[in-house]
Amino acid sequence: MLNLILKHTSILVFCWMISGALFAQDKIERELRVEEKVVPKEARDWFYDAFETTKRPKWYQEIFESGYSYEAKFKLKGKFYSVEFDSLGLIQDVEIEIDYNELPKEVQTGLDDYLLDDYKSSDIKRIQIQYSGKPDDLEDFFDENSTEGILTRFEIEFIGLDETGDSQLFEGLFSDKGDLIIKRKIVLAPSENLLF
Fold it and tell me: Would you kindly state where each structural domain of the chain is located, as residue ranges?
């Protein structure tokens, strides 16, 4: 009987630990500036095909809990861009910093409702429109304005009161309809800077 209780308790503890790991939504990453020559050729080729007029982006290696990626950051037509590639150089997404009033009304409403419902107070720090899709579709989007195969989402960084009542920096990913997809706490190294 004791063995049966211990077995069930062990299973419950294991399930609890797994569920905690699945719902632990901390974003822990560190950015290091790197020379362009260390970035995979596939990433550099895609970047210069899609953004032909851009010269000399700043390249970074992002190190996070499950690996690393590469990111090109640059300014184009008054907007800050961030282009992320996986460790092998395959394009992941392109993010462009925008203002709150550039969000579609549906997304504004969803974001406002979420922040009012879940936080006593909040302060939006950064909003980015995020484009993802197959490499050729993304390249066509930036080269030719073709929207075929493009998934649009919105990444929003904000400060809100967490469950302990302390101010905490969060990142929320919202759909093009204004629905929250995922929320993570942002954990930065003391010297990290939110902006590039």
Answer: 2-187
